[in-house]
Amino acid sequence: MPSCLQSCAVKHKQINNNVLTMATPNSLGIDRDRNLEPTGQLLRTTIMLSLDQKNNEQDVPAYIPMAQYISNSWIDDGEEARAPVEPDVSIAMPATSLKLVKAIELMYHSMPASEIQNCFPKHVTNIGKRDIVSAFYEMKRHSSAVTRATLDRGFLLSCSIIEEAAKSGDFLEEMEHDDDLHRISAINRFIRPEHIKYLFSDQFKAVSHHFIFHNFARTDPQEDKLRMDLRKYLRFTTSHVIYDFLRFVISVKQGDKDIIDKKGPRRILVRDNYYVMPGSGPAGEVYKSIKRLPAAEGFDTHSRTMSIGGTTTVEKTT
Question: Does the residue 8 lie in any domain?
Answer without folding.
Answer: no
